[in-house]
Design brief:
The chain is mainly alpha-helical. Helices cover 46% and strands 11% of the residues.
Length: 102
Amino acid sequence: MASTSGSSMTELSSKAEIEKFDGTTSFAIRQVRMMAVLTKEGTKKALREKVKKPETITDAEWKDMDEKALSSIQLVLTSDVLREILEVKTTTEAWKKLENKY
């Protein structure tokens, strides 16, 4: 993590720096940025419900992809926002909960 101009920033594996979402800025903009990160990491498919899991992906691969995507989302949230999704177990659950809240 690096701090720029007093803002909390997170450096992801894609080398993109994304300001942590604190609930006060546009969630729509945050979604676009997170989709870009998930796409770049190859984990965007994890936003699908498991019942819509591509047949070409094993359950183990799906679980791994989902864990990576959920971690990426968690890493770009401030502690206050992260508390809102602490109990969720999947990327889809986290995404929906954040959409409904923000």
